[in-house]
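In response to reviewer comment 3 from the previous cycle, which asked for concrete evidence that the modeling workflow produces usable outputs, we include below a single protein chain processed end to end. The sequence was submitted unchanged, and the resulting structure tokens are shown without manual editing.
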Amino acid sequence: MSSIPGKITKFTKKEIDYLFHHARRALKNPAFVILLAPRQLNFGRILIILSKKVGSAPQRNKIRRRIKSLFFEEKYFTTPFDTVVIVHKKATELSFNQIKNTIRDVYHKALAHHAKNSSDE
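The workflow returned the following structure tokens.
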């Protein structure tokens, strides 16, 4: 488990293609679009996409660090999903707690839906 922190954001081109092909939108709001896909490895990973329109490099890095920190600290890598977070300019206006609550809500809904579908089978 100790090697997971360095691997939660590493994807090959082929894995990214698979991710986008199988991803389903879990959230769309002015700050984020969050896509979830079945994980490809034995742990979930996260792909964070920001354009230069989002803000300066320090602002983009701060958002990226916050999202990666939440993903690891909340142990979202244990979920059955690989995640794509597309960040929009409005995300620079959000506090850490607002980002945390948004991402937590997405995972709670997705896990509930996944559990319901798994029990139906």
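The mean pLDDT is 86. We consider this sufficient to address the reviewer's concern, and the full set will be provided in the supplementary archive.
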